Amino acid sequence: MSLISSIEKVTEAKWYKVMMPKLYGWGAAVVILGALFKIEHLPGASYMLMAGLGIESIIFFFSAFEKQHVEPDWSLVYPELAGMKDPSQMRPAQQLDDALAKAKIDNELIESLNEGLRAFGESAKQLNETVTAAAGISEYNQQIEEGVKNMNALNSLYELQLQTSNQQMEATSLFLQNLQSSVEDSKRFQQQVNNLAENLEQLNKVYANMLNAMNPNK
Questions:
Q1: In this structure, are residues 64 and 20 in contact, taking their beta carbons and an 8 Å threshold?
Q2: What is the DSSP track for the chain?
Q3: What is the pLDDT of residue 104?
Q4: Distance between alpha carbon 146 and the CA centroid of its chain, in Å?
Q5: For residue 211, how many C-alpha atoms fall within 13 Å in the half-sphere facing its CB?
Q6: Please, are residues 3 and 18 in contact by the beta-carbon 8 Å criterion?
Q7: Closest by alpha carbon to 21, among 54, 53, 62, 49?
Q8: In a 10 Å sphere around its CB, with 0-12 CB exposed, 13-18 middle and 19+ buried, how is residue 23 labelled?
Q9: Closest CA to 89 of 80, 78, 102
Q10: What are phi and psi of 22, to 5 degrees?
Q11: What is the pLDDT of residues 135-172, one digit of tens each?
């Protein structure tokens, strides 16, 4: 028995199939820990990497002698699968292909249908854009109407303020006129008081002269 045959026999053993998945995990874990120790500069990293990579090398060596996986004939277990090539027992996808072929629905017709759907989608998109633009125009018109209403309200308020200002100016002018008239009246009153004082002074002089004339011996 050759060495290769012996190794192939080992790979077919039950204990090999049980242990190999575990060795895969153990070797990978040791390699990862060794890499972590190496990155962190911890002691023992080199030994762990050597051990882990050595285990992985042994695993890959024996894996090269494993037999390739052969798909079993499931029809031996499930006899109903043996007639899958019968047209009456074809898969749904094959039945659909046959139905399309009988209906003369080929790739050109499907492509034409796709083009029609794409054109319909483009038309729907353009219609949506048109509706959106119309909605935007309507909203813009509403904003303009609101702006016009606000301008009218501002004009009314301005006219009211202008009327109030004119009334205030008229009242101020009338007040100034009355004030000026009062000043002139005050001047005339002062003049009359002065005239009255002069008349009283002259009257006092006349009265004094009369008293002197009535008392010549004094």
A1: no
A2: --HHHHHHHHHTSHHHHHHHHHHHHHHHHHHHHHHHHHHTT-TTHHHHHHHHHHHHHHHHHHHTTSPPP----GGGT-GGGGGTTSGGG--HHHHHHHHHHHTT--HHHHHHHHHHHHHHHHHHHHHHHHHHHHHHHHHHHHHHHHHHHHHHHHHHHHHHHHHHHHHHHHHHHHHHHHHHHHHHHHHHHHHHHHHHHHHHHHHHHHHHHHHHHH-TT-
A3: 62
A4: 28
A5: 7
A6: no
A7: 62
A8: middle
A9: 80
A10: -70, -40
A11: 667 777 787 888 778 777 777 776 777 787 778 778 77
Q: How far apart are CA 90 and CA 75, in angstroms?
A: 15
Instruction: Return the amino acid letter for 72.
Output: P
Q: What is the pLDDT of residues 112-135, one digit of tens each?
A: 777 888 887 888 788 777 767 766
Nearest to 24 by CA among 12, 13, 14, 32: 32
CB burial string 92-129: b at 16+ within 10 A, e below: eeeeeeeeeeeeeeeeeeeeeeeeeeeeeeeeeeeeee
What tokens were used for 85?
């090539």
Domain boundaries, the chain: 1-66
In sign, the C-alpha dihedral spanning 73, 74, 79, 83 is negative
For the chain, what's the residue count?
218
